Each structure stands twice: as structure tokens, then as C-alpha cells.
Amino acid sequence: MSFLKKWTSSAPTLNGKRSPAAALPAGPECGLPTLPNELIPSILTRLDSRSLYRVAQVSRRFNEISTRDWLARHGITPSQLSSGQVVIRSDLPGEAFSALRSALFLRVRPLTSLGCIMPFVVDSKIFFQLDSLLSWFSPPVVRLTAVDLDFGADMIPHATATKSIARALTKLLCTLANDCPTTVFVLEDGLFTCRPDALRRWNPATGHYEGGWVESTTTYAKIRMHDGSRQRVPTIRSLQTVNTTYPLDPTASSPFNKWKLVIIDAASLTDLQLSIKLASHEWAAILDALALPVLVCVGLWAEAISTATSTRFFNRHPTVRTIKYLSPSADPLPSGCAPLRLPRLENLNSLAPYLISILSSSAPDASCAEDDLSDPDSAARLPRLWHIELRPHVRLRDALLLASTHAPLAALTLWSLAPAHLAAHPWPVFAAVWRLTVNETRVMPVLAEGLPAVLARAFPALRRIEVNYSWAGNTDFSTRVMEREQRAFVQQVRAANPDVHTFMFDGKEQPIV
Q1: Which residue, 48, 126, 373, 465, is most buried by CB atoms nearer than 10 A?
Q2: Burial of 200 (0-12, 13-18, 19+ CB in 10 A)
Q3: How much is the pTM?
Q4: Rounded distance, CA 2 to CA 7, Å?
Q5: Predicted confidence (pLDDT) at residue 2 exceeds the cutoff of 60
Q6: What is the pLDDT of residues 285-341, one digit of tens each?
Q7: Is there a contact between 154 and 122 (Cβ–Cβ < 8 Å)?
Q8: Closest CA to 132 of 93, 158, 163, 160
Q9: Which residue ranges does the record assign to the F-box domain (predicted)?
Q10: Which of 207, 86, 119, 198 is nearest to 157 (CA)?
Q11: What is the rounded radius of gyration, in angstroms, for the C-alpha atoms of the chain?
């Protein structure tokens, strides 16, 4: 090994500079560069990583052969390099990062995708080496179109206990965001957009993005978005995997062709709340690029999200079982947009316009209130939708009419049901609904006057009634008065429909006398 040390002391380094020795030493080691290529691998296999790196500095031929051998020790094959997609699976990720950086100096196809599955290590040096590797892919160098990192365990608890880990993770996330004008982060149960320097003061120990001293971790914090507004967004409470996609929209003329998407812990993201304020075209670009493999529940409050955008997003996530769609807007689907099709959707909580838009084949327009809006194909598109929850709206009657035609419907929940809703129009028949829930009913005696008749006529299969009412503003009513009104309601309903056998009031069952 001494002859290698002596021989490489005068070899040019990667930056083209030479060591003080001006000439190669005399001796048998001078013949090493002329060895046939088939003998070189046998020599390289006997070298450790440090010696292998020094041999790689001798010449381009040794650089290529030794670097490829170095990469092979960590599972990085020439085919991965030539395809531009590298996956690192190594017990020594630090050495693998160094080997990959050496490979970047070879004249191979530019690297476009990097995947890293690391063993669970609590070593800030590893994260700084990874950050150094990712920093190499910054303008004017071609950016990585995809980066997939798996740290093997949640790193936030270790960042809370160790300052060096916290600094390394902060620097790593900043590196992921700094090479793009806008980065979209999807995490926990929400998302946010940020400028390149927005995460430089993120503190893993507190969850805050803007710095400052707090006593404990927080669930939500404010961050300055890409448009300058400060909005309340979820904090990063776990960090095991990171998946990035660049660009958000590959279309050359798109304003989002330099945006980046970063998803944290995608394998555990089951809930998603869409409530921040963004423009309609920004929501469309983000949701069209977003894919969450285990998404179950979606809450939507943002008015700027169009029905077409949300429908495209839902149709790409067949795992969704619950939708809470409380945006007051529900524009009609364009002619080229496929209707909503969710084979596992079980619960839908929405306003009347959205229910009309997804269950009908017509546009949700007030002028067609008297038309036949029913869509016979809704049961095929939404075969498991058995529970619908409706909020008060001027088009409640049209929504109820459509809901009654949905064959799988078995449970119905109505909010703020007033006497006017009971007497205004004849109710459609819900042939298969066996459970009815009425929320926020404040005046029990008035409701009892019209509801029993509606139940007998419109709910022939009803077996269970749940009433959740608020007595706010009625503090003069004693518990005894409340119980008396409940018993009277039960008697009236039983007289109109004897098959109803379960009555629940604010979560407590009222016995049948």
C-alpha cells in the first residue's frame, strides 16, 4: 500500500491541481497505469474506501473504474447512473453520498432522480453530507426532478433532544426549498406554500417557522406564504420520509414550471384539510400534481377550488372514504370532465349545491329546480355512499330530492332543521334510510309538531332517530322540562311510526315508555 501512497502523492486532484511532488517516482509502481483493465478490478477490491478515493485521482481511467467500484459497494449500478435514476440502499450512507458525488464528475447522463433509504442513524454528519450532495443540484446545474428520502425513523424527537440534528434537518429542508422560487409543502393534515428563505428559522423542537421561544410543541403556526400573506398552517410534527417533485407543472408556458412539491411522510397522510387562501389556478396546479397513496378523509373549505379541480383530485384517490365539502361554491363540471367516481366513499358532508353537482347529470343552476336532476348512474359511481350530511341552504329541497334517489343511502343527517323546512314542500321518500340525525335543533316543541308526520310519510324504513340540540338562549328550561319535551316527542313519533325503536338525545338514549 505504501507504493500507492507514494504514487498518488503527485497525482492531480479533482480540481486539477497537483501536489508539491513534480514527477512520478521511479520504481515498479510507475507501471501501474499501464496494467490491462481486467487486472485493475482485482487490485481495487483489496483497497479500503480511503485508498480507493486516492486511486481515483490518478487518471480518468482509474477515476471511472474505481468510482464505479466504489458505487457498486453501496448498490449503485452503472445502469442506474446511465438512466439518471439512482437509489441508495446502504448501511453507510455517508460513504455512498461521497461516492455519488465522485460519480457526478464522470461524463454520464445527468442525474435526474435520487432515492435514499437509510438505516436509522442519529448522526448529524450524515444529514450534512446529504445536504451537501443535494446542494450540488442547484442552478445552473440541472435540478433533480425527484428526490425520495427515507430516514428509517421519525427524526423530530431526536432533533428535539440534539441541537446538531435540529440544525442539520433545518438546513436540509432549506436546501430542498431554496433552489425554487416557490415550494409547496404537504404535511400532517394540510399544506402551505413558501418562499425560498421561509424555512431558514424553522425549529424542529417547537414546530415554529418564524423562530422565537415557546414552551412546547405546537400543532399549528403562522408562516409567510409565497404571495406574502401570513396564514395558519400545520407544523412539521414528524419527519421520516421526504418526497419531492419538480417541476409542479412541466408545461413550458405554465407559471408553475419552476415550483416544487415536497411531501413529508406521504405513507401516513390519511387526512387532508384544504383551507388556506390561494388563487383558483394555483389550487388547480397543486391538486393536479398531488398524489397521496393512503388518503382517507378530505375536508375542503377553500372557495377558490373549482368543482372540476376537486373532482379530478378525488378521482385519482380511490381510497377516500369521507369528504367534508363546505365550500359554498359548486360550479358545474365542464363537458370534458369525468364525473365523481369513488368506489370507497361512505360519508359525505356538504352544502346542497355540491351534492346536486355530484349526484345529478345537470349543472347546479337554480333555473332547473323543477327539472328531473336524478342521475341513475350515481349508485354505480358511488356504490358505498350510505351516509349523507346536509347543511342548511336555499336549495335544500333539490338536494333532498336527489339524495332520495341514491339507492345505497341508509343514513341522513340534517343541520339546523327549522319548521319552515317541514311545511314548505312535500318531502321525497327515503325508502332505505333507517337512521335520521337532526343537529342544532333549538325549539323542540315546535319541531315536534311537524317532524312526526314527515317521518311517517318520507321515512318508511326508519328505525333510529338522533337529535342533537342546543339549549343556548333557553336557560330558563330546567332539566325536568327538557325530559318532558323529549318524552312527548317520542310518543308523537311512535304514534306516527311504531317501527322506530331507538331515540337518542345529545348522545343519551331516551327509553320508550
Answers
A1: 465
A2: middle
A3: 0.81
A4: 8
A5: no
A6: 999 999 999 999 999 999 999 999 999 999 999 999 999 999 988 888 887 788 999
A7: no
A8: 93
A9: 29-73
A10: 207
A11: 32
